[in-house]
Description:
The chain is mainly alpha-helical. The protein has one domain (7-241). The chain has 8 helices and 8 strands. The strands form 3 sheets. It has a 3-stranded antiparallel sheet. Strands 5-4-8 form a 3-stranded antiparallel sheet. It is globular, with a radius of gyration of 19 Å.
Amino acid sequence: MQSFFASHDLALVGLSYAISVIGALISLYLAEFIVERDGSINPGWLTLAAVIFGGCAIWAMHFTGMLAFRMEGPVTYDVGTTLLSLALPILLSGVGLFVAYRWRESVLAWLAAGVVFGLGVAAMHYVGMTAMRMSMSMAHDTVITGVSIAIAIVAATAALRIIVHWRGVARLISPLLMGLAVCGMHYTAMYGMTLSASEEVRLGVDYFEGAWTEGTVGFLSGLWVTMTLFVGAALTVFRKLADVDGPDAFAAAD
């Protein structure tokens, strides 16, 4: 059994960060509509923001990052596990946004929301990794795994603090931090992963039954990013043409 590390395509690594930032930017822009004038939470805006963040900023980023991962042998992804890896970050992003905006003046709520977001990023990553069908066995370093989760939690917590409590263009720091939370967690976790060639595993792999190819996963990631950009563009036009309740996400400071 021989262990080895694979390299990454740096252009795709950069693209994965850009995708995460775009997803975070648009979802946090949408999040400004979550709180109604009476203080209640609007479930429609909450759901849309969670779908954009979980699907684009986390899920699409992850699989773009996996396309950047160069290793020997073919790889496919189990459909059921891959779909679970999509549902988890959407659900946990929704919970995190709800907590952050429902109790926006509470420090405890802010910290709890950051933990939920960070765990959502980590859950997506490690469930997504288990979806891989390949000819090698996979192991994760325990310490580096812990560090990767801590990165996601700390960066996400800081980003939520900024987007909920800061005003003006300074809030643009938040999507950059969210991108750092997702990509920092992902690539730190990848650094702690070891792949080992295994003849036993290779002979037992079914690459195609109930599985998606890398091309299919890449297409779906691109589709999600396209949908995110469309939502962002549509929202921008909508806000220019209509008198919309709710503060401007990146308006000048009050």
